[in-house]
């Protein structure tokens, strides 16, 4: 069974692929089958992925507030996917903010450039503090 960290990695991959290749519903099922993400983990993956897509515009607007001189469309694809997932979890799920931010920073360390963890942490931390 896939861990929650692996689920989040998969959501980042799906968001990245969507941005590069456009919407392809078959791809999502094929990807999840290939990664052996099934049952509860599949449901969690799809809830995060579909949630980000459902709230994409409002997520981007919220993220832009905390990006300072940049805007969401000016940062890298992976960083954008991580921020969108993190923002979705902060704003629309019951997952503790510390867990969301830590996971996003870890994903940035694994998948993005060397400056990404600091950027991700700053944006999500600012967003979380603004929500209180």
From TrEMBL:
GO MF terms here are: RNA binding
The answer on whether this UniProt entry bears the keyword Transcription reads yes
Identify the Pfam families for this entry.
NusB
Per UniProt, residues of the NusB/RsmB/TIM44 domain are 5-129
Question: Which InterPro entries does this one have?
Answer: NusB-like_sf (IPR035926), NusB_fam (IPR011605), NusB_RsmB_TIM44 (IPR006027)
Query: What are the entry keywords?
Result: RNA-binding, Transcription, Transcription antitermination, Transcription regulation
- Do the record's keywords include Calcium? no
| Example GO biological process | transcription antitermination
Family as reported in the entry's similarity comment: Belongs to the NusB family.
Do you know which NCBIfam families this protein is assigned to? Answer: nusB
What is the documented function of this protein?
Involved in transcription antitermination. Required for transcription of ribosomal RNA (rRNA) genes. Binds specifically to the boxA antiterminator sequence of the ribosomal RNA (rrn) operons.
Q: What is this protein called?
A: Transcription antitermination protein NusB
Protein species of origin: Campylobacter helveticus
